[in-house]
Amino acid sequence: MAQMISTVRNGVDTQQLFGTLDAIRENPALGAFTFRATNRWINGAHNRSRMQNFYGAGREDDSRREAFVIDAGEPTVLLGTDSGPTAAEYLLHALAACLTTTIVYSAAARKIRLTEIESTVEADMDVRGCFGLDRRFRNGFEAIRVTFRIAGDASDERLRKLVEHAQARSVIYDMLSHGVNISVDAVTG
Amino acid sequence: MAQMISTVRNGVDTQQLFGTLDAIRENPALGAFTFRATNRWINGAHNRSRMQNFYGAGREDDSRREAFVIDAGEPTVLLGTDSGPTAAEYLLHALAACLTTTIVYSAAARKIRLTEIESTVEADMDVRGCFGLDRRFRNGFEAIRVTFRIAGDASDERLRKLVEHAQARSVIYDMLSHGVNISVDAVTG
């Protein structure tokens, strides 16, 4: 009967999760990942990225049959044609998505069944910074505020601890909080 | 005949661009923007964000008739079902999109006609960090590498300067390089 017992919790196969952690412990090289995106300018504020292959778990991953294709843009008031969300909004999405998945995975590992996670993310900026009009303002957001609503089969305290743990382990939260080294090269012509 | 002369360069209406800058100089409050996203967990690594209204240019902007809806996910090897790009890939997209738009807008202001911009962005991480397996690794990327290919009606030097200027003015590059304050609240039940 053992095989009848589902190991899936919150949509995460916990047997696969713990197996993955064990595999990386045994062979640390499996932990190295390289993610990629290619972007092409279309017109004005409209540009488009494609993401498909990446390196991870010891090999070049080709499991995605097609590339994900996503468009960026700016609203009219920022001189675009609304061809897609702004880069700033994509950043907020990346943060919300990463924190949410971190919550879901760690809840699965801790045997907590979640029923709902919603978040709102908002951030202020003064475009006098990025437009070069006033040096007192930075280019980016002054601050980002995230509010989670989370429900599940655990005490309020354990649910809140999941959100705290996500801040301690989230890939995107780490980079946005502490910064990351970026190198930019240009090939002309 | 003056009205026959197009003020559009690289898909950017430069008359509108300079008009916007003038308007903000005259009334600095127009520079304040607040961007937002709401995210909802669906199952496992699958979650979905919506972005529609934002505050900017002195008012709540409701020019978007519909929300942008984007899905995040993880590939199989990271315990997902490939329901969308990973948060890490969305971050790379946000960086490429923001640098590209900054290049396009500043080229328009400098009277440079661009014919092509492509970029590849890649970044390494060791998931032993975010999986909590080894404290020597951070949760996020170790580094991000961006390579631009840019062509247009200007010298190689001026084209390279556009890419340098984008690093000095990009909203996303600033935040990823220097970090930003993030507050996270949780409401349970």
TrEMBL record, chains A, B:
InterPro entries: KH_dom-like_a/b, OsmC/Ohr_fam, OsmC/Ohr_hydroprdx_reductase, OsmC/Ohrsf. Signal peptide: none annotated. It holds the Pfam family OsmC. This is OsmC family protein.
